[in-house]
Amino acid sequence: MARRTPSLFSPTELSEADTPEVASLYARCADYFLLQDGVVPTPADAHELFTEVPPEKDAHDQTVLGWRGGDGLYAIAAILRDYPRDGTWYIGFMIVDATQRDQGIGRSIYAVIEDWAAARGASEIRLAVLEANEAGERFWRSLGFGECRRVGPDMFKMRSHRRIELSRHVNRSYVVGSDR
User: Fold this and answer.
1) CA-to-CA distance for 50 and 99, rounded, in angstroms?
2) How far is CA 79 from CA 4, 13, 44, 82, 110, in A?
3) pLDDT tens digits for 77-122?
4) Considering only CA atoms, which of 25, 6, 1, 2 is closest in space to residue 103?
């Protein structure tokens, strides 16, 4: 049976009640967690998506969006508003089910995120990508993100990484596939 590409319906806002579904997605994306942490993800990692924010922020400053298809949750994005300053929204985490990658879904999801954030006052989007995640860095740069700085190294469970912080100004008329 051929696997259907999920349609990009509007995302839903997720809560801690969705932790089991997030944990299932994390398990299907173990390749990323092995790269970042050196170990497979646990249910506790899924719970932390909803609770772990920088010390100067509150969990209520973060929105976790989820995209669902016929097979359930296939992508998530955690977005922190007004961080590190007002008007800058930070994508703390975004992941797409490993079976759905390389189909343009990440680009489409980012377009939704940018429009969603812009409608709520964002003028800039920031994020950090692990230096070791070359595919991730290529993806974000292909969307027009530019480097702000490099930070770290920081410890992620069993691995240490430097991160590349990237930024782009919000374009209220973002077009999938464009570079700005």
Assistant:
1) 24
2) 27, 11, 19, 10, 11
3) 999 999 999 999 999 999 999 888 888 899 999 999 999 999 999 9
4) 6
Residue type at 37? Answer: D
pLDDT in tens, 24-60: 999 999 999 999 999 999 999 999 999 999 999 999 9
Q: How far apart are CA 117 and CA 78, in angstroms?
A: 12
The two tokens of residue 131 are: 């230096």
Could you tell me which residues come within 8 angstroms of residue 58 by beta carbon, excluding any fewer than 6 positions away?
Answer: none
Torsion angle (degrees, nearest 10) of CA 97, 95, 76, 104: -70
Question: Can you state the percent helix, strand and coil of the chain, rounding each to 5?
Answer: 35, 30, 35
